[in-house]
Design brief:
There is one protein chain. With 584 residues, this protein is an alpha+beta fold. Among the domains are: 109 residues, no CATH class; 117 residues, Roll (Chitinase A, domain 3); 94 residues, Roll (Chitinase A, domain 3). It contains 24 helices and 20 strands. The strands form 6 sheets. A 4-stranded mixed β-sheet has the order 1-19-3-4. The protein has a 4-stranded antiparallel β-sheet with strand order 8-7-10-9, with helices on both faces. Strands 16-15-18-17 form a 4-stranded antiparallel β-sheet, with helices on both faces. A hairpin with a 3-residue loop joins strand 3 and strand 4. Helix 5 runs antiparallel to helix 18.
Length: 584
């Protein structure tokens, strides 16, 4: 056990208490924990973190992907993460989510979607009894769902005059006219048909010879296709051939063809296999459910008492505060003006008009009320108190309450001050102002004319250092090193050398430059450009903001932990065995 790390966490999370009994070294694996689970941490004498919780979190991590043993120094951070998550969950129970309008609406929408599906299942779907006679009738009455059109699966081989003219042997055919090319294509296809008769594999011939390369590279495979997929001449042949036969050569507007029909499926219905029967049964049930749910909602709407706020609806609805009520449904639920104008616009009888009548607005609000009527009916029937519904509602509420706690871990208003940006710039000036701004390579020759020859060689694509290896003066083993100067600054080479290098573009080659050593051909590999604080300021600001976020989060975690009493019991798992990742 790494006691120094434990001591660090003790200082961090005071008044946390570490309980360690004995100094025996034990090792536990998943099966042992499963047989006898035990507590490894306790928060505020109320919330327990179990060894199984720790193991499952470790198993999902990328630690020891090949398996192995972890001691407390390596798994303790993971345990701290679990403790922190538990604290966030505990604190979220004290949050009033209604004070955060955005998250509260999100919670309501998520729960309402769940509740609608739950009511649909329990009120509508569960009441439907599907019989085989109904399923059979539904099946035959819906060919658009369960029938299929005539289709063919085929392979093709194509030779075309255009393919001959533009293909790899185009030089052979450059002097032929259209009729001659057509005749050659016909002869070639006939020869390939003879090869098929002699036992050659159609797919291999298509791969080697077909000029339709999209299908040719797939051994001529076209897959299954319906009529009106390809041109009529091609389909007339393909759909007329029996399954398993190869056509005689035939001509279309695309050239000469052979087609091999692998399968031919007539139009009709899919066989009513158990799988298809299950699909039909579900579709039949959904059809009944759709009709019944419509009748159910219509009955609720007819019995509903909806009061409309005509004084607000009759004015400029875009200026009405979002919290203003627009309609009250059965004196229970309220529809407000939140996003109401956008919703109402979809119910305009005249899309060209800028206004809506009160009648149109009433219809739109009545439609909007249907969901509320369903919720009211569900609650009246007792579904709102079903354990599954209550649990789901609590789960969604708690999830978004936790988001409020987590939001406090981010300092959204922070912006680095200009003084801090300037300080960072000055402290890291070498990253922004370069004493050696240009990367150069060069070759020294004694003749400027020969220098121009080497420059031309480099411009033609020969690697500059290959030229240096052959022509740079001196011993061959040091030529490349001598030619590659790396990044240089003023004063490291003669002034005229440096000024020409600065004026040469990146990946460019200079004309010969004379110095005391001879003529230099300069290759500029790279340039570094100084950046002012105004130019680099946004990037520095982003880096400072990220560092601030990291520091702020660290402090936030410390503060969260300090507010709670945490007891650790790690004596039973001095070491923890993890299986390989794929077996966890």
């Amino acid at each position: 056990m790494d006691l120094r790390k434990i001591a660090f966490w003790l200082l961090l999370v005071v008044p946390a208490i570490m309980i360690v009994n004995g100094c025996q070294v034990t090792s536990m694996n998943r099966d042992e924990i499963a047989r006898s689970d035990f507590r490894v941490a306790l928060i505020d004498s109320a919330v327990s973190i179990m060894a199984s919780d720790l193991y499952m979190r470790l198993a999902k991590s990328n630690l020891l992907e090949k398996g192995g043993t972890l001691d407390s120094s390596t798994y303790f951070d993971t345990l701290q993460d679990i403790v922190l998550d538990s604290i966030i969950s505990m604190d979220a129970r004290k949050v009033d989510l209604r004070k955060n309008a955005g998250l509260y609406r999100t919670y309501k929408l998520r729960f309402e979607d769940f509740y609608l599906n739950y009511l649909f299942q329990h009120i509508i779907l569960d009441s439907i009894k599907v019989d085989s006679i109904g399923v059979d009738s539904f099946y035959w009455a819906h060919p658009e769902l369960f029938g299929y059109k005539e289709q063919v699966r085929a392979k093709q081989l194509a030779i075309s005059p255009t393919g001959l003219k533009l293909g790899k042997d185009s030089l052979l055919y450059k002097d032929y006219n259209a009729d001659q090319l057509d005749s050659i294509a016909r002869i070639m296809v006939a020869e390939l048909r003879s090869k098929v008769d002699s036992g050659a594999d159609f797919g291999s011939l298509a791969y080697d010879y077909s000029m339709n390369r999209e299908s040719g590279k797939k051994n001529g495979e076209l897959g299954y296709f319906f009529r009106n997929t390809f041109n009529k001449e091609f389909e007339d042949v393909a759909f007329s051939l029996p399954k398993g036969t190869v056509s005689q050569p035939f001509k279309t507007s695309d050239g000469w063809h052979l087609v091999y029909v692998i399968d031919h499926v007539d139009s009709g219905f899919a066989p009513l296999t158990p799988e298809i029967y299950s699909q039909v049964s579900k579709s039949y049930a959904n059809e009944i459910a759709k009709a019944r749910s419509g009748l159910f909602i219509d009955s609720l709407s007819r019995a509903a008492d909806i009061r409309f706020n005509d004084s607000a609806l009759g004015g400029n609805i875009h200026k009405v505060p979002e919290s203003t009520w627009a309609a009250i449904v059965n004196d229970i639920d309220t529809i407000t003006f939140f996003r109401l104008p956008a919703m109402l616009s979809g119910f305009k009888m005249n899309p060209e008009s800028d206004t809506m009548t009160l009648s149109e607005m009433h219809n739109a609000l009545a439609y909007q009320a249907r969901k509320l009527l369903l919720f009211q009916a569900g609650d009246k029937l007792g579904f709102g108190k079903h354990p599954e519904v209550v649990k789901k509602n609590d789960s969604f509420f708690h999830k978004y309450a936790m988001e409020i706690i987590k939001d406090s871990s981010r300092d959204m208003a922070y912006t680095p001050p200009d003084s801090l940006i300037m300080e960072y710039y000055n402290e890291n000036i070498d990253k922004f102002v370069f004493k050696k701004p240009i990367y150069v390579q060069h070759i020294i020759v004694q003749d400027s004319i020969f220098g121009e020859f080497l420059r031309d060689q480099a411009l033609s694509g020969i690697k500059f250092l290959d030229l240096a290896k052959e022509y740079y003066p001196g011993a061959e083993e040091i030529r490349v090193a001598a030619a590659d100067l790396g990044y240089i600054g003023p004063g490291e080479m003669p002034d005229n050398f440096y000024s020409v290098a600065i004026g040469t573009p990146v990946n460019g080659y200079s004309h010969p430059v004379k110095t005391e050593w001879g003529y230099h051909i300069i290759h500029v590999v790279d340039k570094l450009y100084d950046k002012t604080v105004d130019q680099i300021g946004p990037g520095i600001s982003d880096s400072l903001r990220k560092q601030h976020d990291k520091d702020f989060l660290k402090q936030w975690k410390q503060d969260m932990m300090r507010r709670h009493r945490i007891e650790y019991s790690l004596d039973r798992i001095k070491r923890l065995e993890l299986a390989a990742k794929e077996r966890r």
